[in-house]
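Q: Sequence in, structure out?
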Amino acid sequence: MGPEARQDPLLSPERLDMTATADPAAAAEADLEARFVEMARANLVNRAILDRLPGLGLPDCWLVSGCLFQTVWNLLTGRPPTAGIADYDLFYFDGRDLSWTAEDRVIARCGQAFADLGVTVQVRNQARVHLWYEAKFGFPYAPLRSSTEAIDRFLSPVCSVGLRPIAGGGFELYAPFGLSDIFAMIIRPNPKFRLSPAAFEAKAARWRKEWPEARLAAGTSPAG
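A: Exactly. Output:
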């Protein structure tokens, strides 16, 4: 899967019709995308968050990363869909107001919207990440231009995934490195953006402790 987001309802009827006559590789990719969306939504928390996103009206808003791929890992390994998922990450991108106060208002509104779910929903405006990232993590972070660019910079292809509902039904899937590592449960560093080998090592260790079936890619050291 390339860097363009795919619209899947689970995939749209139009997309399913297209893949019926497409080349086998494209059809297999589309089937994998549809399977991913279906499995991610088997987690009822993911399903509820996605159902409520349009009502929040947040620009460039995506449910991302761990709550998606870890749900798939849970189903692949016979665990409950929510097992081991620490939190649910929600990205949006709004460059009109980069103040902490504006972001905090959105966080509070989302807190009310998801209060009944009994989980931690981490909401962050990706337009302002560069303002606080270095102070928190110790190294600079260039300004982002979109929420999907933030996904591009995730530590590993396995977590580089986002999902959002689209108007008229269905979902848009963004996975710039494809989905094969997720379904194979293979962990490797981001090949295009290596922000912190230490952070990769910590994430990989946490994932492998929770999901021992996951493995590092061949030639990948624990430190990335």
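The first helix runs from residue 13 to 20.
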